[in-house]
């Protein structure tokens, strides 16, 4: 029992308890998320000087790095995150007052670096295997300068983010109680993503940018943008004005080419690649509103015979006209994005839809192909367009686990989603893949059956996936060492049948930070040890009425707030 | 299939589909929530005139009613809710343009009314059995005036709310397509509540007021305010400065006497009574921070042996000093509230806490009482103070189902929470009660185990309670007709271990509107029929980027948004 209720000198006991808590806190930099690969901390208090500056030692730093430096300076000077201890750091007053001041953080390229620096935005969209995100960061205990070094602009940017997370506020002074700090860091996996479905509900550009801010804060580097689905097609694609007119929920619920560029540029300047997805050949009913000739079983009923959710509708993959249409669509859509990956979807294809579609049956008959052969032809043709444009195709797992399409292993990446147990099968097939399993990473589970008419209905992927559950994911489970090399990383995903702009932040954060740490820091860490850092992460984002809301994204707790946290600590079994 | 994909004349087919949807919509006033007891609607389009006014026919209307009239006028003139149809009402343009205009709504007392009008705020805190909330409302199809009549100021206020829900916006014009409208309305049950726990997390006054706005919008009439718990005591009570200092999470996370008055007055002016709860004798660890002498097993470990969640701590109910302390506390706390009900809590009392507490054992020995006898004495003494102040005591179900305390049936109200199956037992015991069962009405379920260390942990009241589940609640299940008379009503509840200011709105709304309709309109209604109205309710509150956010509370969908809704409609099995 930390706080004795029998000791008459209650204040003394309370003070002792606070000291115990302080000691417990002093061993790690709690606000860090994800944890660096190597971290050592001391116990000296150090503050940022009033004129603390961040500079780049070298010539011709890319403008987007300079912009990031500027944002970081602004952040550390103005952030109001207080320590997650009783009194929120008031007991640090004397130590901060007498602490030495850090006057600068100096960025430079590693001594081994040669060649021309590239911009952060360029490096953010490199091929995954070429992306360099490591850095080293040292913060001295005295007043000399802190140093951040990397072999890439992207690495410097990741280091800036880490540096931002080292400081607490006490009455306007940024300080740490853990100097000196030495960090050597690099990600365990190159792909750390977040998927957002903007088809079931539309999200304004501002929502997406706010989400990108928070993603960047936890070093997520891929925004998997599930743009379109059967319910809506909110993307304006040059050459497809009818789709732009009929596809969005309303004329204002649309992403213009300018919006896309805005999002892509904003993301890249924060170290994030955009992986766009135009889901095909299933999940395409909405295309029938503009081009009915290309869609089989559009809104057919009973929908459950034709699709996994209403409304049914799939591209007529056996039609050469529809194949051409999709090729043109992919060509134009993929041109809006600068990244090197593009998802053609491929999930939940319903064969009955085609069995019942006279035109498809006619097309198959004429060509002498089976449906599987037609699907293979359609996929190869549409992926061919992507490959010509220098893009690697990304598909959901069914495209290799349920169909035999002979997809190129070098030019195709698989998203494992139905079950974490399917990862091994994808690996056996020799494909590189991303872990996106519903049983660990789906953020939408557990809110009931969305179609609405069944009071006892549960969501298909019940229960709710807690951050703790996601945090325990093992990327290498059931894989051989060689197969482990096919793991690109992983991501959490928000399907938005039951979410919208109004609950985006609390349904995504802080849970999506869970996989961000798994795939940056590596798996196998203890949830109890992570909890204080996750709390600090959330506090840093303005929950519990701390004074800061710098990054608006992370706000809500899956485990309550400071004082509940304190209660747990004081009451550990 | 509404929209044929084989018809080459696609536009014609689409138009036909829209017409089908319009017809489906024309039979009910979709934006109404809760449904009035009697509702008849026509099919004439009627709009509000630009100078539409609301007047009171009579003299000396209470100021709070005049204020409500003023807010209603402002609302109907400025609300931007559009019809939940394809095109959001654009197809109504011609009909609206040529529609007759309604120039006024006239409020008056029923012809049978005699006596002096009382203020809305007074009537809102009448005893439940004396509260009069019925009204009649007629809106003609022509340009004559609409009329709202009631036997009480509170009834007029409820009618104003209903009137507010009748109108859609089309380019700045408020209109209905369902005139004439005739409504006779009164609630099925007098108690329709919402409970908010401000102890596990603190909520600023603005959050509470915003929640009160939305409660009023759906005719919820009781704010059950679970003020304190083991984690914090955020209420400043005159005479208890030490508790005010040690109880809140931080000095700013506190409700002052002025805050309480502000909340109570705001609620009453919106037809809402505040039922405060100071949870005792369990759930009181935090009191030990100010008065350790009154708390047994404060923060004792392992906490699971001493409480249902950490931190443990219970009032020393066998101590006469602690009993006096609690009496004084209740007396001072209850004086802050104008209502006639006060909850003393009474849930989850842990007997081991007292078994292991030397002082309690000593107190029991000296008095020769059993623990049960001491609990009876404590409860009668503390309730006695409430009764002296004219308050009816409210307690959680254990106080009558697990203990034999001889509580007055006339002066005690029971909250059934552990299971809906326990309602019958409470009724058998002869107590009036409120339905607050965790298996139907707990808003916090389904987000994992909040203490945080168990990745496979589920919330104790899994699964998530969907609005549909809550909507199917039967208040009279397993009750005799006579026992049915003991049902005061019901409420949904938010315990806040896993919620805070940042997710308050989406976790509460629209789900809490579910019980509001059950207990106003009566149970047994169909969820599929309710869904469009619930969508309209949510849309009216600014979800899905409609332009209005008049009442900020209701924002998030348990079933997605307009177009998903449309998809379901078009795809009904």
Automatic annotation (TrEMBL), chains A, B:
The active site is at residue 348. It is an enzyme of class 3 (hydrolase). It catalyses: Hydrolysis of terminal non-reducing N-acetyl-D-hexosamine residues in N-acetyl-beta-D-hexosaminides. It comes from Tetrapyrgos nigripes. Its EC number is 3.2.1.52. This is Beta-hexosaminidase. The keyword Hydrolase applies. One of its GO terms (cellular component) is membrane. Gene3D superfamilies: Chitobiase/beta-hexosaminidase domain 2-like, Glycosidases. The keyword Membrane does not apply. One of its GO terms (molecular function) is beta-N-acetylhexosaminidase activity. Keywords: Glycoprotein, Glycosidase, Hydrolase, Signal. Pfam families: Glyco_hydro_20, Glycohydro_20b2. GO terms for biological process: carbohydrate metabolic process; glycosaminoglycan metabolic process. Belongs to the glycosyl hydrolase 20 family. Residues 189-522 form the Glycoside hydrolase family 20 catalytic domain. Residues 32-166 form the Beta-hexosaminidase eukaryotic type N-terminal domain. InterPro entries: Beta_hexosaminidase_sua/sub, GH, Glyco_hydro_20_cat, Hex-like_dom2, HEX_eukaryotic_N. It comes from the Eukaryota.
């Amino acid at each position: 029992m930390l706080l004795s209720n029998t000791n008459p000198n209650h204040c003394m006991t309370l003070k002792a308890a606070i000291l115990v808590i302080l000691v417990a806190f002093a061993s790690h930099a709690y606000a860090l998320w994800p944890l660096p690969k190597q971290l050592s901390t001391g116990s000296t208090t150090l503050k940022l000087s009033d004129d603390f500056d961040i500079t780049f030692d070298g010539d011709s730093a890319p403008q987007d790095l300079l912009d990031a430096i500027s944002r970081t300076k602004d952040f550390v000077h103005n952030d109001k995150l207080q320590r997650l201890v009783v009194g929120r750091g008031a007991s640090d007053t004397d130590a901060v007052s007498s602490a030495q001041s850090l006057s600068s953080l100096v960025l430079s390229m590693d001594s081994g670096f040669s060649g021309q620096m590239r911009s952060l935005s360029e490096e953010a969209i490199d091929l995954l295997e070429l992306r360099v995100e490591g850095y080293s960061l040292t913060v001295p205990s005295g007043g000399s300068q802190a140093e951040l070094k990397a072999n890439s602009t992207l690495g410097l940017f990741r280091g800036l983010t880490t540096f931002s997370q080292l400081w607490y506020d006490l009455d306007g002074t940024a300080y740490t109680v853990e100097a000196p700090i030495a960090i050597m860091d690099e990600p365990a996996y190159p792909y750390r993503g977040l998927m957002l479905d903007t088809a079931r509900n539309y999200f304004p550009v501002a929502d997406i940018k706010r989400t990108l801010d928070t993603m960047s804060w936890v070093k997520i580097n891929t925004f998997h943008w599930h743009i379109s689905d059967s319910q809506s097609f909110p993307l304006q694609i040059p050459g497809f004005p009818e789709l732009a007119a009929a596809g969005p929920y309303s004329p204002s619920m649309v992403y213009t080419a300018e919006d896309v560029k805005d999002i892509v540029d904003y993301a890249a300047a924060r170290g994030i690649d955009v992986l766009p997805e135009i889901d095909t050949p299933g999940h395409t009913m909405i295309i029938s509103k503009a081009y009915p000739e290309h869609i089989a079983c559009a809104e057919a009923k009973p929908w459950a015979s034709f699709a996994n959710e209403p409304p049914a509708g799939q591209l007529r993959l056996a039609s050469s006209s529809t194949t051409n249409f999709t090729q043109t669509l992919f060509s134009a859509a993929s041109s809006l994005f600068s990244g090197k990956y593009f998802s053609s979807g491929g999930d939940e294809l319903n064969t009955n839809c085609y069995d019942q579609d006279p035109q498809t049956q006619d097309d198959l008959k004429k060509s002498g192909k089976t449906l599987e052969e037609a699907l293979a032809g359609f996929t190869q043709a549409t992926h061919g367009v992507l490959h010509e444009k220098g893009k690697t195709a990304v598909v959901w797992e069914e495209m290799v686990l349920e169909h035999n399409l002979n997809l190129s292993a070098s030019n195709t990446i698989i998203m494992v989603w139905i079950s974490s147990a399917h990862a091994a099968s994808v690996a056996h097939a020799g494909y590189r893949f991303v872990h996106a399993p519903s049983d660990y990473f789906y953020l939408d589970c557990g809110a009931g059956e969305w179609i609405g008419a069944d009071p006892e209905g549960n969501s298909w992927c019940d229960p709710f996936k807690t951050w703790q559950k996601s945090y325990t994911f093992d990327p290498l489970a059931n894989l051989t060492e060689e197969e482990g090399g096919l793991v690109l990383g992983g991501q959490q995903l928000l399907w938005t049948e039951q979410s919208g702009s109004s609950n985006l932040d609390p349904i995504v954060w802080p849970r999506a930070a869970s996989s961000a740490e798994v795939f940056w820091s590596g798996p196998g860490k203890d949830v109890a040890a992570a909890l204080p850092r996750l709390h600090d992460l959330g506090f840093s984002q303005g929950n519990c009425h701390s004074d800061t809301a710098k990054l608006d994204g992370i706000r809500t707790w899956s485990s309550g707030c400071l004082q509940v946290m304190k209660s747990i600590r004081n009451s550990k079994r």
